[in-house]
Specification:
Length: 131
């Protein structure tokens, strides 16, 4: 039950970003942001974070240090390769019209998702959850 509860902040971040992007779409677009890119990046990052959370949670329950490290490195490399690939595809397909502001916003979202994920996993690893 605690593992499911730890996913709540990730879903709240996802919903919050989408609501902000939709409600303030006109304002963001007048400031030259590509709102659709932000929404797609948010969806990708949420999915990656959920999968990463699963891997890391499994790694926390591993019986060996090697199992834990495998989960940590696997999670990190998985996210890194997919995010770098998504950025590369976007930049290559939109060479002249790539929106730097939205890309930077997406990178900030990556940091926010990482922070929320690590914080929720640290709460799961607290002393009250080892019983």
């Amino acid at each position: 039950m605690a593992a499911r509860k730890s996913l709540l902040p990730i879903f709240l971040l996802f919903v919050s970003v989408n609501v902000i992007a939709i409600v303030f779409r006109e304002r963001l677009e007048t400031r030259a942001f590509d709102v659709d890119l932000i929404i797609w990046a948010n969806l990708l990052l949420c999915g990656l974070t959920l999968f990463s959370h699963y891997l890391l949670y499994k790694g926390m329950r591993a019986r060996t240090t090697a199992g834990f490290l495998k989960a940590v490195y696997g999670s990190f490399l998985f996210k890194l390769v997919l995010v770098a690939g998504a950025v590369a595809v976007y930049v290559l397909t939109h060479r002249d019209t790539a929106n730097k502001g939205s890309l930077i916003t997406s990178m900030v979202l990556y940091l926010c998702y990482t922070f929320v994920e690590v914080r929720s996993l640290l709460k799961l690893s607290g002393p009250q959850n080892h019983a």
